[in-house]
């Protein structure tokens, strides 16, 4: 009966494949949504369904050969066409099911279920402090010269002219004639996060929040020029001047979204391409430079006039006239410092260091579970945590390292001990070395 249904009808093998495919897709969605991947019975069922799907594919292939052997050409052609459509549709649905299961299901990995912080580590373990700042802070919390220039521009009434004027001739001269001096300045200046991303070098502007240098991972600062409680007074919050901005120097491209080179020369006057943004605001993204560097300024603000963009470009024009304009806290004297703070969500952390590697190079982080030595966030942490910082021959002088990173192993509400190691890769080509380590109380990040 089954054999006759599968091989003596044109639709039998197709129905079998469609049925098994539908059940398998449902299991994939359930696997992500219910979080039952660790259940043995469920794993056996999942493997059985996959093997059944393979068997259904083989059955369809056999049915096609049977039709060809019996010279039923039309039936064979119909089975090939419908089978191809069915398999193509299954692959598309399979990818969508994986995405749905990932997006809407819980992301518990149960990594820390059996972990406990050993008693001998409790006394010296580093407990993260409160978050230093928020990407949605109001203007009053920022106290560095760059941020003050941005907010001074926003206090002016915005017009409709999106013209942007740029003179980056001083920066261009540094890039082409004094590149080493420029890189040393960017590394020492706490207002610049000089880092590598996908094999290229970028400097992203960092702001100081109530005396603490604190950059956002994507470089964007946003909020309101005046402080209002979003939850209690939404009307006042919405009427306040909303802003979002980031400033990046790429050597030679800007990094985020796509590789983007300079669209205009280092000395230019042009109308910014302004589009409608959120909260009745206008958004633009301008890039100035040449084949060796690109300054990108992103702005979202209530008027078409590019007040932030022009203020940033004017600030950069003045800043790079001289490489001596370092803020007083660029270098501090004393012992090494290690300050860990919570980020926006559990599992996301901000680390501030004061160290001196004694030579130029790249600082980055490694992380391990403290009791078993399991590597944490492997493959992601180095890329997310690297920074080129200042250095000197005086070991008493300390330079800023500040970064945001994520630990992906573990679940919210299940803290465990992790060893955070600070590593240094010298430009000299000498072996990498560990600068310091601390055992910290952390949680893993979840969606």
Describe the overall structure.
This protein is α+β, with helices and mostly antiparallel strands. The protein folds into 3 domains: 2-104; 139-319, no CATH class; 343-442, Immunoglobulin-like, CATH 2.60.40. The chain is 33% helix and 27% strand. A hairpin with a 6-residue loop joins strand 17 and strand 18 (433-442).
- Beta-strand portion reads 25-35%
Helices and strands: which structural class?
alpha+beta
The largest β sheet comes out as: 7 strands, antiparallel
Given as residue ranges, the uncertain stretches (5+ residues, pLDDT < 50) are: none
Globally, the shape reads globular
Number of spatially distinct domains:
3
Count of discrete alpha- or pi-helical segments spanning 4 or more residues: 11
What is the N-to-C order of secondary-structure elements (H for helix, E for strand)? HHHHHHEHHEEEEEHEEEEEHEEEEHEEE
Helical percentage: 25-40%
How confident overall, as mean pLDDT? 85
Strand segment count:
18
Instruction: Report, as a whole number of angstroms, the end-to-end distance.
Output: 49 Å
Radius of gyration: 29 Å
